[in-house]
Design brief:
By secondary structure, the chain is α/β, with parallel strands linked by helices. Strand 4, helix 2 and strand 5 form a beta-alpha-beta unit. The longest helix has 17 residues.
């Protein structure tokens, strides 16, 4: 197969959206009402009320530090993640968004996303978030089966999830929700039924993640003890392929390995990551990529919420890592992020970073095995088969 003329049968949907990465601001709210047994995110349960005013003051200080590191940037997206940001009061969200606007120029059409759990949804609270400026909500539904929701440690049931979806659609211009598949005992047929139901509910975006067993979580211990059977590799692949086929047929094709949208409704903030744009990360355990004098810097903040809070109050930020990346490290990150996308990576950017071309022998070998393909002379992407073994594809090219 000629690498510049890929067979049509291999082509993934190509979202007709601009490829400029933009500049994003990520705000991490680390608190949850309960810790899910599969979760390895930086989330924490507190049994006493969180002092939200004190955290707002700390966010303001750290935002000012990050803004000083990124002068001249225009914010195209903001993402309030966690944790469970919907545990914040609307006035807390408003204060954070006002602080961002005070430190950067925010585009008039900026996408402002907030994660929410169905168990923490209230109509008045949602209206408050909308009034504060949130224009997109991402709901952690995770399953449309009560038994599986209980097994996943979720605090909501299917009825609450459906109510939250309906309320979100009535309140915000844009809605996404998450589902986890490849759950214990799940068959392809059962997942297809659930996914069809989800697509019927979805407005324009779905995030569909395979369950992963992360070390250090309760699920890891159960799985190691043989008490949590998960689908084998063959079944997981079949579930993934069914997901791609069904979402494409229903008008929400994959634009990224786990994200599906009506063309034009892709998450702009996440595209900033995947297109290897710059972004500021604030809050406990947040990560960022900001431009330094000689190149891009990888920045991370203290993970423990109370320690982060004290650091910010004492020194204006909770930064614990600020590492300049080499050109090779930047190029590897560009590959790792960009090959997740249906649109692939811009090889001109790769050459600008590395001063060389992608290794022709590795590319030719992967192309011959149907793992990657060219879209013209300057764009490379993984095929559907390559997406199933993406880590290996990235390793070969890097």
């Amino acid at each position: 197969m000629n690498m510049y003329q890929p067979a049509p049968s291999l082509l993934l949907p190509f979202p007709p959206v601009a490829r400029e990465p933009g500049f994003g601001v990520y705000v991490h709210w680390p608190f949850c009402a309960a810790k899910c047994p599969y979760c390895d995110f930086n989330s924490h349960v507190r049994h006493e009320p969180v002092d939200q005013e004190r955290y707002v003051a700390a966010f303001r200080r750290e935002l000012a530090v990050m803004a000083a590191r990124s002068r001249g940037e225009r914010v195209t997206s903001i993402f309030l993640g966690g944790g469970t940001p919907s545990l914040m009061r609307p006035e807390t969200v408003a204060a954070i968004l006002e602080a961002i606007a005070a430190n950067w120029t925010v585009a008039p059409d900026a996408e402002i996303t907030m994660e929410a759990n169905p168990s923490s949804v209230e109509a008045e609270r949602f209206r408050g978030y909308r009034a504060a400026g949130v224009n997109r909500v991402s709901l952690g539904v995770q399953a449309l089966d009560d038994a599986d929701l209980k097994r996943l440690g979720r605090l909501h049931d299917v009825a609450q999830a459906l109510e939250a979806v309906e309320l979100a659609r009535a309140t915000f211009p844009r809605l996404s929700f998450d589902l986890i598949y490849a759950r214990p005992g799940q068959t392809v047929e059962a997942w297809e039924d659930e996914l069809n139901r989800a697509i019927d509910l979805a407005a324009d975006h779905l995030s569909l993640y395979q369950l992963t067993i992360e070390e250090g979580t309760p699920f890891f211990a159960l799985h190691k003890a043989g008490k949590l059977p998960v689908p084998d590799g063959e079944t997981s692949a079949a579930l993934y392929e069914a997901t791609q086929a069904l979402t494409a047929a229903r008008g929400l094709p994959a634009y990224e390995i786990s994200n599906h949208a009506v063309p034009g409704a892709e998450s702009r903030h996440n595209l900033t990551y995947w297109r290897y744009g710059l972004y500021a990360g604030v809050g406990p355990g947040a990560h960022g990529r900001l431009q330094g004098r000689t190149g891009r810097h990888a920045i991370a903040t203290e993970r423990h919420p109370e320690t982060w809070l004290k650091m910010v109050e004492d020194w204006d930020s909770g930064i614990v890592a600020d590492e300049p990346l080499t050109a090779v490290e930047e190029a590897d990150e560009l590959l790792l992020m960009g090959l997740r996308l249906a649109e692939g990576i811009d090889l001109k950017r790769w050459r600008e970073l590395t001063g060389r071309d992608i290794d022709a022998r590795s590319e030719a070998d992967l192309c011959a095995h149907g793992m990657v393909e060219r879209l013209g002379p300057d764009r490379l992407r993984a095929t559907p088969a390559g997406m199933l073994v993406l880590d290996a594809v990235v390793a070969d090219l890097a």
